[in-house]
Amino acid sequence: MIMMMMRMMRMVKVMMMMMMLLMMMLMVMILMIDDDDGDDDDDDDDDDDHYHDDDDDDDDDDDDDDDDDDDWNEQENS
Question: How far is CA 53 from each of CA 8, 47, 72, 74, rounded to the nearest angstrom?
Answer without folding.
Answer: 66, 10, 29, 32
